[in-house]
Design goal:
The chain is α/β, with parallel strands linked by helices. It has helices spanning 23-36, 49-56, 60-72, 91-95, 116-123, 146-161, 165-168, 177-191, 206-217, 232-240, 257-263, 286-299, 357-367, 373-384, 387-413, 439-448, 478-496, and strands at residues 76-79, 83-86, 200-203, 223-228, 244-251, 254-255, 269-272, 302-306, 331-336, 348-351, 419-420, 428-432, 468-472. The strands form three sheets. The protein has an eight-stranded mixed β-sheet with strand order 3-10-9-8-7-4-5-6, with helices on both faces. The chain has a three-stranded antiparallel β-sheet with strand order 11-12-13. A two-stranded antiparallel ribbon has the order 1-2.
């Protein structure tokens, strides 16, 4: 019979009885360090806990606590007849593997082998990655309300302080029901949307909702109407789904439905921003809305209505949604809180026709299961207590003042190089360049001067004689807008003269 290995002589462990650290913790740390440094080698057998306690002049319970802790963590193992030994494979050996050589382009076969959908996603990129602080006049950048930030922090702390199991478990793919009820109530009252809470899906911003709708409703090769000029995020989502884009012109009444019907009467989907067309800012007329709905009903097509900034209308009452006119369940209505509160929130909503609710819920469950539950609970209370409505009222007044300041500054500083007129709604204006001016060159010159003013032509699928720049104003005080207008004027004079 094999003889049991003799216990090794223990290295000096340096316990300090005057320390505030308990002896069992000191012994655990000392033994662990001796193992990691190789002073206790793999396979080495420790003395019995009784013998080690005598050697250290401590109680056996102290030694037992340290040995059990090291055994639980995988440094030691105890076997009947063999005593306690140092494991052959230590936890650090598993956690800290040696990295192999870094991959290089020369090690591969050129470009990465993406799937066809992956290649489409790269090609469909809708603009530069945003990370740096917004510079005037970046469109879509909102102002930050100190009152909102303070109240949001209070509600978040309260919810996490008393968080219940229902907010820590997996949630409904459609979202947190109290938030869905609050959204449904708000949309019925403010936007004349016809919906119940069961139709509302909470998503990670409007782009997420748009991507989900497009993937569910379109097959590769299906035709889809897209406003021209139009929102780059919608173009990207449709391209990534391998849809065939049908650019439909926009005039003073919005999408030219008759032109779309002539170009692609059997299109499967139409993407529209009827309340405040992006980027031109026009409103779709009632006649066009009814014609679009009739086309969708007759052709069994879908309409995606993106209501991205309807809260900010400065004259008259908010416009009723296109979805509110729909009697046949053909409109998917999308909205967002990112532009109304703050972009990092990443919460939006989709109002789904009843016939599509199960399909959307199933698809959402495969993508990311559900949005963060505690954040949804905070937003639900923020809406229910009236903070959301108060914030919208404050921002509506603030943005109206800032738009007026931009128009005034443009007339003073940009006369002759950029024509800027007020608008009834939104967070940006379109500045029109002189006939024949290259708006991409103008945008590049502005960027070199520290101004973000995207070229209108970058939002078009087909060329146009008119050119312009988008000027966001929501995130900047009047004094900042006046200074930015002066900087932009200097840049444009260099390009346009």
């Amino acid at each position: 019979m094999a003889r049991r290995a003799r216990a090794v002589a223990m290295p000096a462990l340096g316990l300090d009885r005057a320390s505030d650290v308990p002896l069992h913790r000191q012994l655990y740390e000392a033994l662990r360090q001796a193992i990691l440094e190789g002073r206790l080698r793999p396979g080495a057998r420790l003395p019995s806990t009784r013998a080690l306690a005598v050697e250290l002049g401590s109680s056996r319970n102290t030694v037992l606590a340290a040995v059990e802790h090291l055994t639980d963590e995988g440094y030691l193992e105890g076997r009947v007849g063999a005593g306690t030994t140092v494991r052959g494979t230590l936890p650090e050996a598993l956690l800290h593997t040696r990295p192999g050589p870094a991959p290089s382009a020369r090690n591969g076969a050129g470009a990465p082998q993406l799937s066809r959908r992956g290649a489409l996603l790269i090609r469909a990129r809708s603009g530069p990655r945003l990370g740096a602080a917004a510079r005037p006049f970046r469109p879509g950048a909102p102002a930050y309300d100190d009152d909102v930030i303070k109240r949001w922090g209070q509600l978040t702390a309260r919810h996490w302080g008393g968080v219940g199991r229902h907010l820590l478990d997996y949630g409904d793919p459609m979202g947190f029901m109290p938030l869905r009820e609050a959204i449904a109530t708000y949309l019925r009252e403010a936007r004349a949307v016809r919906c119940e809470a069961g139709q509302v899906m909470v998503v990670s911003g409007s782009q997420h909702g748009l991507d989900l709708a497009v993937r569910l409703l379109l097959d590769p090769g299906d035709r889809a109407w897209l406003e021209d000029p139009g929102y780059l995020g919608a173009r990207g989502a449709l391209m990534a789904a391998a849809a065939r884009l049908v650019p439909v012109p926009v005039d003073g009444e919005g999408l030219e439905v008759a032109r779309g019907m002539r170009a692609a009467p059997h299109a499967r989907l139409a993407y529209v921003t009827p309340s405040h067309q992006y980027p031109l800012g026009v409103t779709m007329s009632l006649a066009r809305r009814l014609a679009l709905l009739e086309w969708a009903h007759t052709r069994r097509a879908w309409i995606v209505e993106d209501d991205y900034d309807s809260e900010y209308r400065y004259t008259g009452r908010p416009l009723a949604s296109l979805q509110g006119l729909d009697r046949h369940g053909r409109v998917i209505y999308i909205g967002t809180f990112s532009k109304v509160l703050f972009p990092a929130l990443r919460l939006g909503y989709v109002v789904v026709p009843p016939a599509l609710v199960d399909a959307f819920a199933a698809a959402r469950g495969l993508v990311d299961r559900h949005p963060p539950s505690v954040t949804q609970a905070v937003l639900a209370e923020f809406i229910a207590e009236g903070s959301f409505a108060r914030h919208v009222r404050r921002m509506r007044m603030r943005y109206a003042e800032q738009q007026a300041a931009l128009v005034q500054a443009a007339r003073r500083e940009l006369d002759g190089v950029l024509e800027v007129s007020p608008a009834e709604a939104g967070m940006h204006l379109v500045g029109w360049l002189p006939t024949g001016a290259d708006d991409r060159a103008a945008s590049a010159a502005a960027l070199a001067a520290g101004i973000e003013a995207p070229a209108l032509s970058s939002f078009r699928l087909r060329p146009s004689r008119s050119s312009g720049l988008l000027l966001g104003y929501a995130a900047w005080q009047p004094s900042e807008l006046r200074a930015a207008a002066k900087t932009l004027a200097a840049a444009l004079h260099r390009v346009c003269e």
